[in-house]
Amino acid sequence: MRDVLLIAPACDGQDVGESWLAHQWAELLSTRARVTLLTSHKRDHVPPSQQLTGVRVVEWPEPPGVGRFERFNSLLQPGYAPFYVRARRWLRRELAAGATFDVAHQVVPVAMRYPCLADGLGIPVVVGPVGGGLESPPAFVAEEGATPWYQRLRALDQARLAHDPLLRRTYEGAACVVGIAPYVGELLSRLSLQRLEIMSETAVRSLPAPVDRSGRSGPLRLVWVGRVIRTKGLRDTVRALDLVRDLDVVLDVVGDGNDRAACEELVEELRLGDRVTFHGSLPREQVTGFYEAADVFVFPSYREPGGNVALEAMAAGLPVIVCERGGPGANVDDSCAFRLEAESPDQLAADCAAAVRTLAADPALRTRMGEAGRRKIQTSHLWEQRVEQMIALYESVITEGIIPGR
């Protein structure tokens, strides 16, 4: 077994987002390698050392005050700088004392704005899966006025990749950069990467039991799951519903966020209150019930870097409607999904409505696409496969011997 240094500033199996992702990687990689995890934890959460068995965990509590504003903290990660300093200092001491690692792997943050603390210390480095940095199509920007100021700082990402020497060194010196979808290669095209591989940042643990939808009556039930922000396409989904009001179709919205009020106002304006139900944020186990009850998953997020919800819906046997650009479009194919262009709000709503209309008219097509989605999960998007891919990548970079700083 190889000695792997896993770097994740947040790692919590009881949390959501990147912290949850890092926990999946740590737990599953530890079955195939000797894992040392460098991480931090929220002061009111169970530390990773008490959640993970078979992993050597080196952890620090988050600095005071960092966790007060959850979304700000999640996006910009103000605790990363102190984590970087603490963890790099620890790593230097370990190496000076004779410790060795076959590979260092910074698995989160996913955003391409954080330097790797193992850079330049004589260990082959894998960074990723990383993603993000997608810009909104121009026609959508006018409707993003409610976006908090700190989310607009994403616009600086490309400038930093071009001019921040520490960040450039992380990517150009890494033995391998793993991108969550092909667009990452385009965003990093101005850098001289040693190697780029494409791998989704997430996966499904196992396929649930199939759901028999053949005998259902009543309306066609759509489900949308995610954070309710403008870029995730809920407004476009509501507008699509308005365009198919001649059909018996309803929509369940699972999630919350700063665009919810605007979406609720749009539902009222279009007089769709009897067709759209907002359920708010729900625990993961309750979300599963909405997938099972639904007939179609709709998620036309036009700036989605990666994400897990489309994979969860496919595992539940749902045909999916997503945007071509970004992570969801890269994780599906035409056998299981409608992949929409995102040129303008009117176009996206119209194309989404057309996809809904097609699926409403053809129950057999819904069944075929749902079955194809489950096959896609079985062959490409299980965590077991993701870990096997990563272990093979470790072996490859160790053999190649590309070490940053040399």
Write up what this structure looks like.
By secondary structure, the protein is of the alpha/beta class. The protein folds into two domains: 3-202 and 382-400, 3-Layer(aba) Sandwich (Rossmann fold), CATH 3.40.50; 220-380, Rossmann fold, CATH 3.40.50. The chain is built from 16 helices and 13 strands. It has helices at residues 17-29, 48-51, 70-76, 80-96, 138-141, 157-163, 165-173, 183-187, 234-243, 260-269, 284-293, 309-315, 327-331, 345-361, 363-380, 383-400; strands at residues 3-10, 34-41, 55-61, 103-106, 125-130, 176-179, 196-198, 220-225, 249-254, 276-278, 296-299, 320-323, 337-340. The chain has a seven-stranded parallel β-sheet, with helices on both faces. Strand 9 (249-254), helix 10 (260-269) and strand 10 (276-278) form a beta-alpha-beta unit. Helix 9 (234-243) packs parallel to helix 10 (260-269) and helix 12 crosses helix 15. The longest helix has 18 residues, at 363-380. It is elongated and about 70 Å long. The mean pLDDT is 90. One of its GO terms (molecular function) is glycosyltransferase activity. InterPro entries: Glyco_trans_1, Glycosyltransferase_grp1. Keywords: Transferase. It comes from Nocardioides alpinus. Residues 219-375 form the Glycosyl transferase family domain.
